[in-house]
Predict the structure.
Amino acid sequence: MTTALLAAIVAAGFAIAIHTAHAGGGPALWAGLVLLVGLSAWLVGRLAELGGGKSWRGRALALLAPLAFGAVALALWEALVVGFAVPMVLLPAPSAIAQRIAASSGLLLTDFVQTFIKAVLVGYALGGLFGFGVALLVDRLPFLRRGLLPVANLVSALPVIGIAPIAVMWFGFDWPSKAAVVVVMTFFPMLVNTLAGLAETGRLERDLMRSYAAGHVQTLWMLRLPAALPFIFTALKVNAPLALIGAIVAEFFGSPTQGMGFRITTEAAKLALDLVWAEIVVAAVAGTAFYGCVALVERAATFWHPSIRA
Amino acid sequence: MRFRETALPVLVVAAALAVLWYLAAIALNWQVVANTLARSGQHFGTWDILAGTLGYNRPLLPAPHQILDELWRSTVPLPVTSRRSLVLHGWITLEAALVGFGLGVAAGVLAAVAIVHIRALERSLMPWIIASQAIPVLALAPIVIVALGTLGLEGLLPKALIAAYLCFFPVAIAMTKGLNAPDLLARDLMRTYSASRAQVFWKLRVPSSLPFLFAGLKIAAAGAVVGAIVAELPTGAQAGLGARLLSGSYYGQTLQIWAALLAAAMLSATLVGLLAATERLVNRRMGVRA
């Protein structure tokens, strides 16, 4: 009960503080903010004790602490930026970014389609499919496996994003060159993880399949691929933000006059930082949602795995 | 026996890739070279085109020996102060990457220590750190460059900061996992020895976190190089490997792009290799048996 009261006080306090900041601020504002930060720390500390366990109620309660932490950080950002009159070039207030998102939603949507729907999704799908296919091939040839795995591990540590200018030269300025960068970036994690997953089944299970006179394809389909699924989903989850980063950064090297990476560089050069932040918010939401979708599919597909059942 | 098991397959695969590369270079450059030769009006045969595809100075895909040749020409004969020297550009990028790596790793380890010891932080901050993995942080690079630029900060520091925040997340996550790795049994044992919090930290948590830390450090090192390179793009930087990539892309200097790419790859591989060697050394000192 105290926690709810505390939360209400903190929320009301921040509402007043932000209002005062917009109205001009003053020394009382800073004293108030220091007090509010102290109260917030107490509140988050109390909320952190709540929840836990496997029930839905416990899980929802466990979300309260991070949510409160995020809300406090956002409110503090708003109050400080407005109160100190921080120039927009340095850091725009959250409210300014929200206004920009509302005002330029059409522009943001075109950029989103250009970068995410075209480059990211196409590149992600192709890179994953190639990686998976090559892994199935390599798996049949142990010699190739021993030779290719160190090479693949090496490549995954390299700044693959540097191939973007070469991709532009080969595939033109439009989204196919960005998708090509994404394909190369997502290929190796998928290859390495699928190979690790295919090696996951034990001697015993494989011998059992042999005693059933199962062929290579049957063993693969009924035993080894299901066992490899958690690894494949690990690669899919690693690849999701990687694909988004790849597509955005590849646009830094030249692109048609749309796309999230293009907008970020050109508007940053024009010091229109609120639009840049708006693109970042879209990218962050898209990235998290993409990752979340993959994680949901993973829960549905590998429900039997101990890490999900636990 | 060991050679046949490990080195031989890698060598064969590398050789096969090189052969494929040469074939691809011939196929991709064929048309361009044939057109150039036809325009020059001289008499030429198939053999001339074939030779041309492997020696053309603006190829769609340069042959490996051309890239190595360009790498040689832009490093060894030039003084390191030359604007065309890859050593200079590589050092500029490496400097930013190393400073950023240091900052990011220090911040990541500190965050992990705080998260492990303050329960409220673990419950409220950790979900955000994990969620931030799904956010394309690298897209923030232009903002950091521009914002710090208006404060008069240019050159090394903004690049190092971008490299630092790419290092922060993997290190913070790996280190938190590592510091929490000791199981209940080990912690109970420390309790029966009536060990203090500091003793539990230094004698149990820190040693058991090292494998996780090194895994995070390797990801962070690769990230630092990428961060430093990307940080050089938005301002159209004058120097650094990223600037070489960008200017090569503007002027169609294929060889320059590939040489810069190879230099970046070697930088990154060297850093990761050094970390792996340190890890082996530390493991031996700590008595880990492979």
Observations:
- Chain B has eleven helices and no strands.
- The longest helix of chain B spans residues 2-40.
